[in-house]
Write a structure and sequence with these properties.
The complex is a heterodimer. By secondary structure, chain A is α+β, with helices and mostly antiparallel strands. Chain A has 10 helices and 8 strands. The chains are: A alpha+beta, B alpha/beta.
Amino acid sequence: MRRAVGWLVLAALAHATPALALDPNDWEADSTDARSYEQVRIRYREPLAALDYAKVFRALARDLETAPVWNHDDAIYQRLAASSGRLVQLFDGFQLPADVSGRAVTLDSFLTVRSTGAFQFPCPGGECFKPPDVVTYDELALIDSVKSEDFLQRVRTYSRLLTDFKRPAVRRTVGSIQLARDRWATFIDEARSQYPWEVLLNGWIIGSGTIERPPMRQLVLAHPTVAVEMTTEDIQELRAKETLAIEAIGLIAYRWRNASAPGAGLSWWGLSAIASIREDMRPGVGALLHYGRMVTLGVTWHDDDRDDAWFDRPPYVIASFDLFQLAKVKIPAYRSKLATLEALAASSSPSR
Amino acid sequence: MPKHTLFLIHGIGAHGVNWAEQLDGPIESLKRISERYAYFQIKPLTTRVDFVPIHYDAIFQTATQRWQNDAQFLQEHDPSGLAAGLTEWMTNAAATERNFWWTNVCDLVLYRLSTIYRQAVRSHVIATIAEKIEALMDQDGSATCSVLAHSMGTAVAHDSLHLLGTVRWGGAANALDPRQWRFGHLFMVANTSRLLQTQDAQMKRAYESIVRPGPNEDPGSYCKTYWNFRHEADVVPFPRAFAPVGWSNYTNVLLHHYHDVSIHNLTHHLINPRVHIPILRKLVTPRAVTPEEEIREVNEDRFPQFAGPFERVELLKRLGPRLKTIQNQLIGEPTPAQLARSLSEFWALIANPA
């Protein structure tokens, strides 16, 4: 009877998922294990310090070949060994130079022609390596945990060594992405404000630039703004009058003060053909010059003697400003100054 | 094992910085939902998943705020009254309450038709993702990331991921291109990535981009699996619906439940077990929800097709077959006793239909 029960238990064990199988999704690396990234870094600190990754990956491939946990006929071992061999090939004859600038160039050419994504760990979507050597987490969950542990430790080590190797390139990529983000943020923040129809027109005509650089031109169309007009006829009787300036059509050109430091801001200039509309005289026409976010100056001619001739009288000087930018820049500054003055007044008032 | 990072990308409408952390937002909803499953009672969702909400609505709000300010200034100072009249429609552009045109339609119009706001949104999303990946690589030596996007956010996610993986940033080799690194899973809810696709210089159309599943190192794909969730009555993902042919590791899930009037809402999608179970399994482990738990959760008793404001529809749906049964008893020439029994059953059912 005992013997029969024993056979039954053995048969059940043989057909069941290995009792010690682990879930790779829940696996925690043991950093004291000799195969772990942490121990490999210590063991190979000299070649790693010399950036000789080829030597390290060759040594790890030899270590795998003699690993006692694997039978070389195991399908998973064969795919692991093939991928390990591919890693050796990837770095064969490759050496990062010691100087930083040379290293960046060499790393750039390495990543341009060679791929390392097959060694990403944790394996994306539970699939390690690349075809035809793919090993899935589902397969690992079905084998002995000693083997799956060995597999996971080794792939984690490959992955983390490659992360160290690629780190300067990742920094450079992310740095360029941040620069692009800062350029767009500055452009949205500092460029001349556009009304909805101008936004659509510019999208249609000027386009999007690239994701790294905003367009350096901007069309102006039917852009209304409040301006001030001054007579130039007699400087002794200078009079200013509020007017509505409508920029019928115009063009703005931008330039980065420092393209590598978008925070330094945008400088720009532009020219628009305008119509000036006042309540006390017939509409005028003229031109408006923009220089930077605050300076907007131009000249207009009105038929103020109503003889149907616009240019027979001295022109008016017209000045305007970007309302949104002015409000954004000046109002906080005024508030701050007001708060300072109030504090000063409070502190200097005689005590009772 | 390091946590799985899930980037959350919102759709159209006014969204504050904390949009994802709100009670009815995706983070709290997924946390609450996960507690139904035994695995998460031992290992809470937040111990396994790091949620990274991405907020880009501020860029659109800058535009609407600017238009509102300009229009209001013109209202007050235009001496002719001409421009004030022409721009009056913009004086309420920045309001976030009861302002459907400016908070919803304007987002769509700006993203689809304004190249500068579109690129500004994309660059912001790309930078947020890239900075997080770099930080994870520094901290854990690896970055395991997936994306959950909703509505217009699916188009934003599509465009941003394609650019992240294909541009030679700064003219150098891209260390995050799909030959070097890839996302785990993309969960696209109410997918608009075809509807809003553009032909910008560096962009590709939705079916031609790298935002599709594929094997490691494949330069033409950027994730392992792609999940497309669409509600049958949601009109937003209906035009130019996302339906690729021949993609492996692509799953389309069509939803039929009605638990809220806002069927387009992200949380209304997430409460459906056919949506959240694959998400939880893919983010954590296939064991996170057992087959038995899945059968229990998708059961009509547990997750009815109609609930909340549609509860009566569910009731009527159940009532119909029972009334039909009673009706069938009366076919032909029922005996007086049968008639009495059937009428009695009918009145009892009407009195207590639940």
